């Protein structure tokens, strides 16, 4: 999972002309920043990263869709939920309504596109409509990402802007979930080539009850 690429690709889907969204840390902005003077900007900021605890206990075994085998990793895959804040601000107060209009366009986009699909090998990010046109074999190489609108109470809103160290800006918060994190640290283990089965009548510690021993080759 490449978080940088995913953020950039999703911003590109929302703003294909690249004239609306600026990816920046909103906590570091101040009125002296030049780009705030150039356009009615929508800032995209990652404001929180959490592990999805509902998916915490994962197996270290994963199916390899390319070789149709099972891979064993050194550690289980972790899944992340990323909080993304879109905020509108411009030093030119006459652009306030223009900023709200652009913020509305972002809300409209995610209302129509709340599911995205991330290609595990190429870092491609596509909408559901593009994904739906893929074959079943192609779909196996994609991981689903969902955007959920987060509604904050006035107290929660106050706390968020306080820890961001900024004054309130018209904004909308989304939770991007779920992003798999798994480095390709595979464990090399000898493949199982045969399975031996020993059968006893009752007690396996009693030699007189031994029935038979069978060895099956691994299919």
TrEMBL record:
Residues 33-189 form the Pvc16 N-terminal domain. It comes from the Bacteria. InterPro entries: Pvc16_N. This is Pvc16 N-terminal domain-containing protein. It comes from Chryseobacterium shigense.
């Amino acid at each position: 999972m490449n978080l940088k690429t995913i953020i950039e690709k999703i911003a590109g889907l929302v703003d294909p002309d690249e004239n609306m969204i600026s990816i920046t840390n909103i906590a570091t902005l101040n009125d002296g920043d030049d780009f705030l003077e150039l356009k009615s900007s929508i800032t995209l900021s990652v404001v929180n990263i959490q592990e999805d605890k509902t998916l915490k206990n994962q197996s270290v075994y994963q199916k390899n869709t390319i070789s149709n085998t099972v891979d064993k990793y050194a550690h289980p895959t972790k899944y992340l939920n990323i909080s993304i804040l879109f905020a509108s601000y411009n030093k030119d107060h006459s652009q306030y309504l223009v900023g709200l209009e652009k913020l509305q366009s972002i809300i409209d986009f995610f209302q129509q596109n709340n599911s995205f699909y991330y290609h595990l090998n190429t870092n491609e990010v596509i909408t559901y409509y593009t994904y739906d046109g893929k074959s079943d074999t192609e779909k196996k190489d994609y991981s689903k990402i969902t955007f959920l609108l987060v509604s904050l109470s006035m107290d929660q809103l106050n706390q968020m802007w306080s820890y961001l160290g900024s004054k309130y800006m018209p904004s909308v918060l989304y939770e991007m979930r779920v992003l798999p994190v798994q480095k390709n640290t595979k464990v090399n283990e000898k493949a199982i080539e045969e399975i031996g089965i020993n059968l006893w009548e009752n007690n396996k510690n009693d030699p007189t009850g031994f029935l038979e021993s069978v060895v099956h080759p691994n299919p």
